[in-house]
Automatic annotation (TrEMBL):
SUPFAM superfamilies: PDZ domain-like (SSF50156). Residues 24-34 have a biased composition (Basic and acidic residues). This is PDZ domain-containing protein. It comes from the Eukaryota. Residues 1-46 are annotated as: Disordered. It comes from Skeletonema marinoi.
C-alpha cells in the first residue's frame, strides 16, 4: 500500500472525519454536511509551493493597491517629502554641530542614524572630485575608470582615510593626506552615506 495518498483520498478522509467543514479540492469548494460542532475550520488540500507564493503575492499586491487607491494624492506627496526632510535636517544638524570644537569621527561613528561604510582601494589616483561641506569632503563626481566607481556614490562624505579623521576637513587637507599615503599598497576610505 502506498504511504502517500492522492488528493482525492485525502478529501474523502476529510469529509468523513470533519462533519461541518468546507473542503477545497483544488477545483472547487465543497460543502460538507452541516453540524453544530463548535471546532469547525476550513481545511485546504495540499497545494504547490509556487501556487501558494503567487497567491500570497497577489493577495498582498491587491491589499497595497486598495490602500493606495484609498489614500488622497496630497497625502502621497506629503509622505514622500517627509521621508526626505529628516535626512536633510540631519545633514544640517551635522554641519551645525561641527562648529563645536569636540566634534569628530567618533560622534559620527557612534550615532545610529549614520550609515558608514569602508572602501579599500589600491594606491594610485582616486578619480574623484570632492567639494567642501563643513562635515567633510563630499564626493561631487566619480570617474567611471576610478577604483572607487560603484563603491561610493556622488553625495557621500569622506570622514576618514587610513585612520586619519577628516570630519570637518577641507578638500585641500583631504588631498594632502591622500597624496602622503599614495605609496601604501592599499588605502582605507571611510564614507558617510547621506
Amino acid at each position: 500500500e502506498d504511504k502517500y495518498e492522492s488528493v482525492d483520498s485525502l478529501d474523502a478522509i476529510m469529509k468523513t472525519s470533519l462533519p461541518s467543514e468546507e473542503v477545497s479540492t483544488g477545483k472547487k469548494s465543497e460543502k460538507i454536511a452541516d453540524s453544530s460542532h463548535p471546532n469547525t475550520s476550513v481545511a485546504n488540500a495540499p497545494r504547490d509551493s509556487l501556487d501558494a507564493l503567487m497567491e500570497d503575492f497577489n493577495q498582498k499586491h491587491d491589499e497595497v493597491g486598495q490602500m493606495e487607491a484609498a489614500m488622497p494624492a496630497s497625502n502621497v506627496d506629503q509622505i514622500g517629502s517627509v521621508s526626505k526632510t529628516p535626512r536633510l535636517a540631519y545633514e544640517e544638524q551635522l554641519i551645525n554641530s561641527r562648529k563645536n570644537a569636540d566634534f569628530s569621527f567618533r560622534d559620527i561613528f557612534f550615532d545610529p542614524e549614520n550609515e558608514l561604510y569602508e572602501c579599500r582601494v589600491p594606491s594610485g589616483r582616486l578619480g574623484i572630485v570632492v567639494d567642501e561641506t563643513g562635515i567633510g569632503p563630499r564626493v561631487e563626481k566619480i570617474n567611471i575608470m576610478s577604483k572607487l566607481y560603484k563603491k561610493i556614490s556622488v553625495g557621500d562624505i569622506i570622514v576618514a582615510v587610513d585612520e586619519v579623521d577628516l570630519v570637518g576637513a577641507k578638500p585641500d587637507t583631504f588631498w594632502q593626506i591622500v597624496s602622503r599615503k599614495a605609496n601604501k599598497q592599499e588605502r582605507c576610505i571611510v564614507v558617510l552615506k547621506i
